[in-house]
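Q: I'm writing up a methods section and want to include an example of the input and output format. Could you take the sequence below and give the corresponding predicted structure tokens, formatted cleanly so I can copy it straight into the document?
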Amino acid sequence: MPNLAHVIRCFHSGDLSPNQFFAQIDRVLAANESNSAQLLEILTEEHTKYPLPPEVYVEVHQRIERSADSGPTGEETQIQDSPTERLSPEQSASLAVSSSDQTVADSDRLKGVGDTLNSRFVLEECLGVGGMGTVYKAMDLRKLEASDRKPYIAIKVLNVQFRGHPKSLIALQREAKKAQSLAHPNIVTVYDFDRDGSMVYLTMEYLSGKSLSHLLKTPGFAGLPYAEALPIINGMARALAYAHERGLVHCDFKPANVFLTDTGQVKVIDFGIARAFEKPEEESDVTIFDAGSLGGVTPAYASPEMLDHLEPDPRDDIYALGCITYELLTGRHPFDRLSATQARSAGAKPQRPKNVGNRQWRALKAALSLDRQTRMPSVVNFLEAMSGARRRTAPVVPVAASVVVGVILAAGLGYYWQSRTAGGTNPATPVATSETPPQAAQPPVPALSLASVTPILASVPCSALSATVDDHTLQVQGFLPERFGTTRLKDTLGKVPGVNTLSADIQQVGDDKCGVLKLLGPYWTTNMQTGGAASIHTRDAAKNLTEDDPLILDITTPGYASYVYVDYYLVDGNVFHLLSNLGPRAKQTPANYATSIGSDGEWVISKPLGTELVVLLATPAPLFDTMRPQNETTTDYLRAVEDRLRQMASKYGPDRIAVDLIQITTKARER
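A: Here is the clean output for your methods example:
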């Protein structure tokens, strides 16, 4: 029996039509033993994560109300609050009040998608809900009339609890004023603020992409290679350094406030509770209103001093930057998401990431210090250490009282020259003595490059292998056949010039999976080398399952709209299609869409048992014109897929086909 949360998620993903959705809602309400208050809490929580259209939200809310009125039992017989009182402030901000016994002037009506602000900005899409407001994608009709090629902007509408705050308009005005002063390529551009009736809002540039929090929350995310993380670290640090130079602290720096655009830019957003840590005398109104008093800090990224309500300092942002950098490199929070004060009380210490050098680790540890006085003093220092840059300093020339000995490398010759200030030796004459014998020049350590590794990986038959290079460290991951063996591959890679350290995460697969890896392996490699946006993981990372265990999979789609298929390759030579194989009725999935499948117990592990592959395949067009049987031989299926993938690769490019695989081991349950 479906539950309320599952039905909302299915509707949000497009798997249910509106009629089907409300029919499922009625089924849930008829069968659910929860009281209406619990159902409303679930509705609010799911709506925060998977926003429903305002009119749909209101209708579900009313149906829950009616179900409570029609059959009250237990707690449901108690007097209930009004619907809007039970809603969280964030949801109230997006709820269009339509109750027949409540009349609201149109100018004060809560507006949402489809409405227009000040007869100019058409709200087209809800982009997210933040601490101070709800952000929408909006069409600027004035830009449209002027034939502007980019008529879209982003609008942040102040949430209800802030609109009700006596000085909320001052807060938004301050936010606009401070943000407008931050003209930097790594900071979102803020245009203006205004009001429409009781609604106050902020206009800013529209960004297309995703937040850093989306990347960090990707199922199975275990950190980026240092070379891939560094551009993001640079973008964040430069934005903060620029703001700090102008006397502003962000005060709520977190992954959700870092935006990664589709063009590869890093943008820091929402300086909404930034406060001046330098208070010029002429700015006498600084203390009139402190946006931070409205709340909004995120405990996992807030410094101990912020949680202790001390005056803001740039080093507060440095602590948050250190936490995000650590999470970006490792996939986990440095203090397991404890607040800074909790970590300080517990004496917690962050563990060194495997992919950073000594200098970078010293800088990262300093940024994560739980004491402001010992924390990294500036973002500039942090960035220099993390990027490996060194400040230029004047050369220091040691001078001895009697003899100056200089060692000069003659261009291309390797001569050693010795000059003396006493004894009359011609400094231009090469001198070789028994005390200073000529030494042979040491050969340079060869550079390690992917170009020298890729042909070796490509030569392994029936494999899916990917490599990354960090200085002289080679990391390899993937799948290869048992008959080839990981030892053989490691021995070969260890002899590649420039390899000092080899790290391998390689799984051996049976010969029966050779056809799968031969066809899909190259697409898996491309997906991994471009960041692994398309991913599939078993719940709780479990790869050893027992008969009758549920099979629950977390999947994320690539960074473009695609059609997604999930196939289970059994040990008996057959393939079972879990998703979606619907022929022309297959639905396109949005870019970077994350969801879980199998959570309702649709699939359980059963015979045959052994080592099996589960494959996620994302394609730019439907894979089939007709529906295929849910269970068929692997040979027949791969033959059909091969022809179709060849056509798609030719038309759309092979990089528009994404594959991820997981290998699981299943065993019989002891009776």
